[in-house]
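Data card: per-record layout.
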Amino acid sequence: MPAVKEPISPMRDDNKRPDGTTLLQWARGKPMAWDVTVPDTYAESHIGSTAIKPGAAAHKTAQNKTDKYSKLASTHTFYPFAIETVGTWHEMAIELTQEIGRCITTFTEDTRETTFLFQRFSMALQRENAVSFHNTMVQWRQEGGHAPRVALCRGGIWRGENMEF
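The structure for this 165-residue chain is written out next.
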C-alpha cells in the first residue's frame, strides 16, 4: 500500500498535518490518514485518570487527535494511533494494526503477520522507552546526581547493605 510521511495535501488552516496518508483509497472510497501519539501513562496530566482506568491516556490523546483533524473526515478515513508508554493500546490503533496485518497476510499467506506487526510496534515502544529512560539518567548525572544503590530482588528492595521489605 503506497503511503507518504508528513503529507502536503491534507493540511489544516494552521499548517499542521497528520503523520501520514495512503496514496490509494483505503475505505469508503477515501484514502487513509493517521497520526501517531504515545502519551506518558505516568505524566501528571494523565496519572489521575490512568490510575482509575487503564488506557485513559491513550483514549484522551486519540480523542484530541480526532478533534484536531475533524475536517479531514470529508476527504480521508482518519485513524488516531495512540499507544501509552506502558503499552496500553487505543482501540483504533488495534483496529488499524489488525487491518494492516490482514492486508499483509493476503500477500504473504502467513497468518502470523498481524502478530508480527503487533510485536514490531511493541518492540519499538520498548526501545524508545529505554532511550528515554537512559537520557533521563544521563541528564540527572550531568546535574550532579549520584545513582542510588538500589536493586530489586526476590522479596524486597536491596539498598546498600540492608534489605527493606
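Known properties of this structure: The chain has one domain: 3-164. The first strand starts at residue 3 and ends at 5.

See the next section for split statistics.
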